[in-house]
Design a protein that fits this description.
Number of domains: 3
Distance between the termini: 91 Å
Strand content: 5-15%
Strand order of the largest sheet: 1-2-3
Number of helices: 15
CATH class of the largest domain: Mainly Alpha
CATH architecture of the largest domain: Orthogonal Bundle
CATH superfamily of the largest domain: Intergrase catalytic core
Helix content: 40-55%
């Protein structure tokens, strides 16, 4: 029986089974007539029935899309990660172009195979056919995530990936910058926007997407602070857009050196002059770095990557010299200055100090300073 609300609508309820707990839950429906109320009730009941059928008969291709949707809704992954997951599972060819993962998965799993029918040998068969060690590890991580989510939501009883050893790719960190390499790079890009981008990368350790998302109203020269709140990203679906930083820890305030403030103010003058010549207005809320082909638009992160590739080839630099090298070098320089792991972690915007120290801080020559003295001191204390 419906009841009349103050807003003039009718209210009623219906009990729907929760597919995860098995318990009946009361759901409310609203309408301006009994016919509307009945229609809404039928919609709710049909939706619940469809969800039960979906979980019982979920195929691999259906489930991974549902899994990604859930992870996005609960902010477990961002837009860029979601797209990379989809690419691995659906249509991304490997570097040699020998196969696409879609064809591989369809051959090894069959896209219409039910989740409950996928066994350990299917997972092993997929991994066996992937040549690149990093791609193999990444594919395993994605599959494990998909099947773990299916176990959590009771689509399947066990995760087949649990019984497959995770492939381990050898870590290939970005190359550390030496003073000579840094000088060569900066001399090459002098008097260009890239000069100021590379300088900030070295002086602040910011990610390329964070640098591209910087706005002038987040720069406070008097307080010596630069606020990193966003990251510029690009996906096929959304194009170029401003999103969140890589993780919540990425939102941070960076203390700037006097030189960094001087360089930013210097770039500000140059940019204002360039905008004036192009007939474009100045706005404090606009981006600090701009597209070289259209000053009204922000700089794309992939432009920085492309420029670094050209610079590496031109100057014949070590293979893994890239924009991330500036971030790695920044972390290492801070560690050489005996800053605490916690301070370096917060500076780089990581979730844990352990990850920062293990991944970003390199074993440079300066790291060895003081070790022999400490050992010799211990030898004396132990009468060695």
């Amino acid at each position: 029986m419906s009841t009349l609300r103050k807003d003039g609508r009718l209210q009623s309820s219906v009990y729907v089974e929760n597919i995860f707990t098995g318990k009946k839950e009361r759901k409310y429906v609203y309408g301006y007539s009994e016919a509307e109320i009945e229609f809404e009730k039928k919609q709710l009941l049909q939706a619940a029935k469809n969800q039960i059928l979906f979980l019982q008969d979920a195929t691999f291709s259906d489930w991974y899309l549902e899994c990604l949707k859930t992870k996005r809704e609960y902010k477990q992954i961002n837009e860029v990660t979601e797209e990379s997951y989809k690419n691995i599972i659906t249509n991304q060819a490997d570097r040699q172009g020998e196969f696409s993962y879609r064809r591989l998965l369809e051959r090894a799993i069959e896209k219409d195979r039910k989740m409950s029918e996928i066994k350990v040998f299917h997972i092993k068969n997929i991994l066996r056919q992937i040549k690149g060690e990093r791609t193999k590890e990444y594919t395993y991580t994605i599959l494990n995530s998909i099947f773990s989510e299916a176990v959590f939501e009771q689509v399947i009883t066990d995760n087949p990936c649990k019984f497959v050893r995770k492939p381990k790719a050898k870590a290939k960190p970005a190359a550390l910058l030496t003073p000579e390499i840094y000088t060569a790079l900066m001399n090459t890009v002098k008097d260009t926007q890239m000069y100021y981008i590379l300088f900030l990368g070295f002086d602040c350790g910011a990610r390329r997407g964070e640098l591209c998302a910087l706005r002038w109203n987040k720069f406070f020269p008097n307080e010596k602070i630069l606020k990193l709140k966003k990251s510029l990203k690009r996906t096929k679906e959304k194009g170029l857009f401003e999103g969140t930083t890589k993780s919540p820890h990425g939102e941070r305030e960076l203390i700037l050196s006097d030189t960094a403030i001087e360089k930013l103010l210097e770039w500000k003058k140059i940019l204002r002059r360039n905008l004036f010549r192009a007939g474009l207005p100045w706005n404090e809320s606009d981006y600090i770095f701009r597209s070289p082909t259209d000053l009204s638009k922000p700089l794309r992160p992939d432009y920085i990557t492309s420029m670094m590739t050209k610079l590496r080839k031109k100057l014949d630099l070590p293979d893994r010299t890239c924009m991330h090298s500036f971030r790695h070098t920044h972390a290492t320089v801070l560690a050489e200055g005996n800053l605490s792991p916690k301070k370096i972690q917060l500076r780089l915007g990581h979730a844990s100090a352990a990850f920062t120290m293990d991944t970003y801080v390199h074993n440079s020559a300066s790291m060895q300073d003081g070790i022999i003295e400490a050992v010799e001191s211990a030898e004396k204390r132990f009468n060695i």
